Each structure stands twice: as structure tokens, then as C-alpha cells.
Amino acid sequence: MKVPEHKEIRELARRFLSEQGGALRAYEEEEAFPWPLVEGMARLGFLGVFVPEELGGAGLDFWAYIALLEEMGGYASLRSVLSVQQSLVLTPLLAYGTEAQKERYVPRLARGEVLGAYALTEPEAGSDAGSLKTRAYRDGDFYVLEGQKTFISHANVAEVFIVFAKTDPDQGSKGISAFLVERQDGVRTTPLKGKLGLRAADTGMVFLDGVRIPRDRLLGQEGEGFKIALSTLDTGRISLAAGAVGLMQRALDLSLAYVKERRQFGRPIASFQLIQEKLAEMKLDLEASRLLTYQAVWKKLSGERYTLEASMAKLFASEAANRVAYRAIQVHGGYGFFEEYEVARLYRDARILTLYEGTSEIQKLVIGAHLTGLRAFA
């Protein structure tokens, strides 16, 4: 499978991480959002990679975006910013937004002047997104939104939210619509602290207490929200798979460096059979995940439906990332248990990959439905 290498953006990302990546540790320890690092990524054009230049983006292709996510994957709190901004916010805006909506939001988001958030999950609507309770009522030329969202990335730092709410509760998932909501409309948020991983990535709750927005903030058509949500998650799952590939690559690179330096029984542990077995298993998981991710990208760019390929890539790569991070700890031995060694952070960061944007269990049901033609859930 031949894919574009995009060496320039890879080198740009590597240089950025070499110069500034080390600063992430302090933000992780404080559970603080790394604004200076995000601003640095914005200056390099990382927040609008595949957005056309006329709309403020870098004007590159989707492969360049995947290459960037791979390079940034070992620094998951930073990779998360890129994924949320582009896969979850800019992607549906470019696909479903009116020209006026694109002009209002896309350039500022692509240049990183403002951050966006994707507000779908609720306290009682996670995997079952169709059961969300947030309502949107028509009031003349306005919509009034009532409800709350949880586990929302960028909740406390975003200025623009794509909010999913029911405009017709009697229609179930077909009664869900999507809206462009601005913080200044009266959105309230609160942080969620104490995460196992992604400690420098912002997560929080979003409260919509009678938030009033003009009718022209409807994204797409009424009742089209669930379709928008699912199509957006297909792209998001590819981005997570690419990020997982990057995390695995970082874990393997660190492990290879360590085993060549660490000596036991008078020789480098790299020469031990069981160490080599672990390294081989890590490499297999990494490359299999990479190929599944690239297959999903090819399907997406072909213009065909790629839900199955995105789910397979996300499922395998997220589970593989946890296996690889586990083995990296084993290779480092007792040292790997201490935060001084980067593999400890990689181990923590890998865990979320099997949970958000569809748990591993949900991915299996998506794949099963494609195989059998029967849905295991409504």
C-alpha cells in the first residue's frame, strides 16, 4: 500500500516536539491546558491542515493530517487538540455548514484563533447517543437549548460548540439536530479533573440553560443531527487510530533506546530472548494498526462509505496501543513504574483510546452489524 509520506509536515512536527514537547510534562502535572504549546501548533498551521487556504487553512490533504497525528500521537494531550479541532469540529462544518457559517467559523478555527468542541455525550447518553435529552425549542427566529453534556473535550477552552439536541423527541434519533453555539450565547462549563491520562487536555461539562441562538445556527437540516454525529465520528475514529499508531511508535522507540542501554548479567538486555519477543510483538501491533488505519483513509478518500474500516482501525489500534504501552512498562521494569520515565505517561494516555468516540464494545457491534446485516442495538 503506497501512501504519501509528507516528509515536510513530519519533520515540522518532530522539530516542534524536540523543541517544545518537553514542556508538556509541567502542564500534565498541574492538569493545566497547555495554551503556549497549542498557540505554537496554531502558528505552524497544525490546527487546519486539510482546510482550504481560502478558508484560513494549510490547504494540505487528509494524508498530511494523518501524518501529523502519527507524529503527535506520543504526546496525546496535544494530539487530542488536533483531533477535536479538525476531526470533530471542522469536518462537520466543512461538510454541512452553509457558506455563511463557514465564513464565520472555519477561518478562526483553522488558524487556531478559537477552539471548538463537539458536544454530544450526556450523563445518560454515552454509547446510546440517540437517547440524549438536551432539547432545542423553536421560538420565532430563534432556537432555545436546554440540557447538559459531559466528558466534552475542550469544554472550558472552546468558544464554538457543535451541540446535538432533540428538536422532535417523538422521532427518536431522527429527531436530533445539530447547532452551532458560541460561548457568549450563555454557555456555562465546569472542568472535570482527576483523569487517569490526557491530563493536560481539557475535559468538562457543558450546561445549556435556556441558551438562545438564531435559526441560522442550525447545522444542516432539522432531524439531520444524528447523521452528522455518526459521519463525524467515522472521521474521528480514523484520527484516533492514527494517534494510537503514533503512541505505539513512541513507546517502541523509547523501549528500543532503553534496552540497548540497560545492562543485566553483564550485557545489554536487548540481547535477551524474552525482551526481543516483546519488541517483536510491539512492532507487529504497530504495523498492523498502521495498515488498518491507512486502509480506512483510502476508503474515505475514495468517496465510499468507510464506517466499517474506521471502526476496525479504531478498535484494533486502540486495543493494540494498550498492549504496546503495557509491554513498554515491562521492558523498562521497575523504572517504567515511575513518572520520570515517559512510558508511564504513554501507559496512562493509551487507556482512553478504547473508550471515547465509541468504546471497543461499540466498535465490535458496528463491525458485527456490517457482517450480519443485523443491528444488536436499536
TrEMBL record:
The keyword Flavoprotein applies. Its EC number is 1.3.8.1. It comes from the Bacteria. Keywords: FAD, Flavoprotein, Oxidoreductase. Signal peptide: none annotated. Pfam families: Acyl-CoA_dh_1, Acyl-CoA_dh_M, Acyl-CoA_dh_N. The keyword Thylakoid does not apply. Residues 117-211 form the Acyl-CoA oxidase/dehydrogenase middle domain. Its cofactor is FAD. GO terms for molecular function: short-chain fatty acyl-CoA dehydrogenase activity. Residues 4-113 form the Acyl-CoA dehydrogenase/oxidase N-terminal domain. Residues 223-371 form the Acyl-CoA dehydrogenase/oxidase C-terminal domain. Belongs to the acyl-CoA dehydrogenase family. This is Butyryl-CoA dehydrogenase. It comes from Thermus aquaticus (strain ATCC BAA-2747 / Y51MC23).
